[in-house]
Design brief:
This protein has 146 residues and is an all-beta fold. It has a single domain, classed as Jelly Rolls (Sandwich), CATH 2.60.120. Helices cover 0% and strands 46% of the residues. It is built from no helices and eleven strands. The strands form two sheets. Strands 3, 4, 6, 7, 8 and 10 form a six-stranded antiparallel beta sheet that branches. Strands 1, 2, 5, 9 and 11 form a five-stranded antiparallel beta sheet that branches. The protein is globular.
Length: 146
């Protein structure tokens, strides 16, 4: 029996680069979820200044151009969440594209990166985005020289 791996059943993309300290909104690239069931976004934060507030929301679109907010997708981060990762998973998206917008207000905040994983594709295997530079599958983890 063949085992199915996470990498074979998902498409991984870096959809947001590092953003220096600031208060401007950061909008990720859209990820195609046309052959999938949803998307998981990992927003890797840097420092959130002492009075900073970061709001993350999911958005969806038919054309990767005109996006609408997704109800219930808001995540609010505070300074105590500095250097943390916020996860937003959107399932059963009825549109072809999804993305996140990170709004930084009151005081400067930094973003390390934004990763997206299109989950549950109907077609397998799925190739990763060009932003993924390498992939290794370990079928049976045993001790030894890498």
């Amino acid at each position: 029996m063949s085992k199915s791996t996470i990498a074979e059943k998902s498409r991984i993309s870096r959809v947001g680069l590092a953003a220096a300290a600031g208060q401007t909104p950061i909008v990720s690239d859209g990820i195609s979820i046309q052959n999938g069931h949803g998307a998981l976004f990992a927003i890797q934060m840097g420092t959130i200044a002492a009075t900073g507030v970061v709001t993350i929301k999911g958005e969806r679109s038919d054309d990767n151009s005109s996006f609408e907010d997704i109800l219930g997708s808001e995540i609010i981060l505070a300074p105590a969440d500095s250097d943390g990762v916020a996860i937003l998973e959107i399932s059963e998206v009825s549109k072809k594209w999804a993305r996140v917008t990170v709004t930084r207000t009151i005081a400067d905040s930094t973003i390390d990166s934004i990763l997206a994983i299109a989950t549950g594709p109907q077609i397998s295997p799925v190739g990763n985005d060009a932003s993924v530079v390498d992939q290794v599958l370990i079928g049976s983890a045993t001790a030894g020289t890498p």
